[in-house]
Design goal:
CATH class: Mainly Beta
Radius of gyration: 13 Å
Oligomer: single chain
Number of strands: 6
Order of helices and strands: EEEEEE
CATH architecture: Beta Barrel
Largest sheet: 6 strands, antiparallel, barrel
CATH topology: Thrombin, subunit H
Number of helices: 0
CATH superfamily: predicted glycosyltransferase like domains
Number of domains: 1
Helix content: under 10%
Structural class: mainly beta
Strand order of the largest sheet: 1-2-3-6-5-4
């Protein structure tokens, strides 16, 4: 059975949004370790911009006041440098 995909090749539709996100490493306190900007979101993941790279495979607690009531847990699937100090990452919600 073949899974149908959207025009962009993704399994799920991603809504293009702009929003603030605070991230902390899952193994630390709830204090934010770094900030980012959410650029798209789906039921199972999101894309963010940050000013520092995030290690692939690491677990994060993410907070976005306007998007969710409570924090979410996510895993970093990939991270790419797109400018001198801007990184784009793909996160999967756990």
């Amino acid at each position: 059975m073949e899974i149908s995909k959207n025009k962009d090749g993704r399994k799920e539709f991603r809504e293009q949004i702009l929003g603030h996100v605070s991230c902390s490493y899952a193994s630390t306190t709830n204090e934010p370790d770094f900030e980012g900007i959410i650029i798209d979101v789906s039921n199972s993941g999101l894309g963010i911009f940050t000013y520092k790279p995030i290690t692939e495979g690491i677990g994060l607690k993410i907070y976005s006041k306007g998007l969710w009531e409570d924090s979410k847990h996510a895993t970093v699937k990939w991270c790419k440098k797109i400018a001198s100090d801007i990184y784009r990452s793909g996160l999967t919600l756990n």
